[in-house]
Every structure is written in structure tokens, then in C-alpha cells.
């Protein structure tokens, strides 16, 4: 099947391109990401994506970079939503609780819609059978919303939506991209996600530190328990050894007493004969 694969960056494309090629798809990557800010960041991600695509002999089509259109369609919505933040957990336990996910989902949906609609239109115009996207690699994206918007865009353009939940391959994509020395951005792309990325990294760092402290405390507790068990076992061993020593001492005394009792009559008989 001839598929136009919307891609957000090189690292997120690693596993989707591998899987689709292994299934026999004829894929071309489409880079439609007017959300990425600033422009040098956009160019850096595109260059990394082109390097990966060239290494697997897959073509790349760059869509128009129009951040002004993105600002009109998505940025303005994000600004309005930011003025009405939703209540958040006092002590968040996950990223979705940390960030304003209710409003963020609305903003991200508008962003997905803009980029995937563009991808689907290009797919229809250039004779592709289907459209897909690498956005669903990330566990930090809204996977169900991505699916809904991909299917919406494909239906409107008259092409097939080939949605894949690539999240199970996120760790492998991370490993491969680091191993290959690929550029790995630390935020999704838009101006809103810059601050969200910083907060997420700080939160995850705190979580890792807390988990590390918990593991250290658990190890200390286990070591104390093991030490106490060894001490108890040693005390029991010594108590047993002491008991055995006392037992041997008593038996030895009894034997000595018995021997002494046997010797005394014999000595008395010798004296009488003398």
C-alpha cells in the first residue's frame, strides 16, 4: 500500500518506518509541522529526519512552513484556554495531573487537525492510498485524539486512515535514537510546549529522585532485616553451642563420678588383703 506518513521528527520516525517497511508498505514521509517554534528548531528536526529517511531510502516531502497560520488556528486558541486554566492536583502523581490536560487536549487536537488535514490533502492529490502518522509513538501525546483526527482528515480527503498505536515501540525508538546519536528535542514543538516540557522534565527528575530514595530506603530496610536475621541465627547457634558444651560438661562429670565410684571399692579391697 502506498502510504504518506506524517512525521514530526527523526527519532519518532525510527520505529514506524521500520514496521511499515517490514509489512511491505511503499512509504513516503511528509513533514507538516508549522507548530514547531522557532524556525531553526524546525530546520534542525527536518535535517535529522532527512538523514534517517535517506539511510532507509525513503523519500521526504516538506510541507509549507506557515507558523502564522498555526498561530491563527491553534496559538490563539491556546492563549484563550490559558486564561481559563482547569483545577489541578495539589500533588500530581503523573504528567497528565501535572499539566492542564483538559485544556491541553483541546489545543493539541486543533494542532493535530491542522497538520493531519494538510497531510491527507497532499496524499489525495498525489495518489497515495493511505495516510498515517508518527505522532502516536509518544506516550505524552493524546493517542485517541490523534486517531480521531487522522480518521477525520482521511475521510474528508477520500483516502484511507492507517492509524497505528506505536507507543509500545517508544522505548526502542529512544534506545535506537540515542545509540545513533540523533538529535532529540526536549519539547513537542510549539511555544506552549516549551514551558510544559521544562515542567515535565523537572517533575520526572523529582519522581526519579523519589524512586531512587525509596529504593535506597528499601535496601537499607532489607539489609537491616537481613542483619537482624543473621544476628538472630548467630545467637541461636551460640546458644545451641553453649547448651551442647554444658551437656558435654555434665556427661563428663557424670563419667568421672562413675569412674571414681568404681575405683573406691577396689582400693578398699586391696587394703584389706594387705
Automatic annotation (TrEMBL):
Disulfide bridge positions per record: 188-190
Enzyme class: oxidoreductase
Catalyzed reactions per annotation: epoxyqueuosine(34) in tRNA + AH2 = queuosine(34) in tRNA + A + H2O
Domain of life from the UniProt record: Bacteria
Keyword Magnesium: no
Span list, region Disordered: 216-242
MF-aspect GO terms: 4 iron, 4 sulfur cluster binding; epoxyqueuosine reductase activity; metal ion binding
Residue ranges, compositional bias (Basic and acidic residues): 216-240
Statement: the UniProt record of this protein carries the keyword 4Fe-4S: yes
Pfam families recorded: QueH
Recorded metabolic or biological pathway in which this protein acts: tRNA modification; tRNA-queuosine biosynthesis
Keywords, in A-Z order: 4Fe-4S, Disulfide bond, Iron, Iron-sulfur, Metal-binding, Oxidoreductase, Queuosine biosynthesis, Redox-active center, tRNA processing
Binding site for [4Fe-4S] cluster: 8-9, 108, 111
GO biological process: tRNA queuosine(34) biosynthetic process
EC number, as in UniProt: 1.17.99.6
Family membership: Belongs to the QueH family.
Job of this protein: Catalyzes the conversion of epoxyqueuosine (oQ) to queuosine (Q), which is a hypermodified base found in the wobble positions of tRNA(Asp), tRNA(Asn), tRNA(His) and tRNA(Tyr).
HAMAP family found in the cross-reference section: QueH
UniProt-recorded name of the protein: Epoxyqueuosine reductase QueH
Gene behind this protein: queH
Amino acid at each position: 500500500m502506498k502510504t504518506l506518513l506524517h512525521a514530526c521528527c527523526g527519532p519518532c520516525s525510527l520505529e514506524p518506518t521500520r514496521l511499515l517497511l517490514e509489512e511491505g508498505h511503499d512509504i513516503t514521509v511528509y513533514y507538516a509541522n508549522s507548530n514547531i517554534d522557532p524556525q531553526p528548531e524546525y530546520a534542525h528536526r527536518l535535517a535529522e529526519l532527512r538523514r534517517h529517511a535517506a539511510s532507509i531510502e525513503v523519500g521526504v516531502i516538506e510541507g509549507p512552513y506557515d507558523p502564522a497560520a498555526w498561530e491563527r488556528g491553534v496559538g490563539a486558541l491556546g492563549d484563550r484556554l490559558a486564561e481559563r486554566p482547569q483545577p489541578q492536583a495539589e500533588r500530581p502523581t503523573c504528567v497528565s495531573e501535572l499539566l492542564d490536560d483538559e485544556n491541553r487536549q483541546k489545543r493539541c487536537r486543533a494542532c493535530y487537525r491542522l497538520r493531519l488535514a494538510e497531510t491527507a490533502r497532499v496524499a489525495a492529490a498525489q495518489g497515495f492510498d493511505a495516510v498515517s502518522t508518527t505522532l502516536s509513538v509518544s506516550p505524552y501525546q493524546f493517542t485517541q485524539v490523534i486517531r480521531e483526527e487522522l480518521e477525520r482528515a482521511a475521510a474528508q480527503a477520500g483516502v484511507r486512515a492507517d492509524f497505528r498505536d506505536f507507543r509500545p515501540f517508544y522505548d526502542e525508538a529512544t534506545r535506537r535514537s540515542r545509540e545513533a546519536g540523533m538529535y532529540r528535542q526536549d519539547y513537542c514543538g510549539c511555544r506552549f510546549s516549551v514551558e510544559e516540557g521544562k515542567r515535565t522534565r523537572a517533575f520526572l527528575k523529582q519522581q526519579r529522585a523519589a524512586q531512587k530514595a525509596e529504593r535506597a530506603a528499601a535496601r537499607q530496610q532489607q539489609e537491616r532485616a537481613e542483619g537482624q536475621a543473621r544476628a538472630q541465627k548467630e545467637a541461636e547457634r551460640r546458644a545451641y553451642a553453649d547448651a551442647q558444651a554444658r551437656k558435654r560438661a555434665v556427661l563428663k562429670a557424670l563419667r568421672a563420678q562413675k569412674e571414681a565410684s568404681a575405683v573406691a571399692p577396689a582400693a578398699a579391697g586391696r587394703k584389706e588383703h594387705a
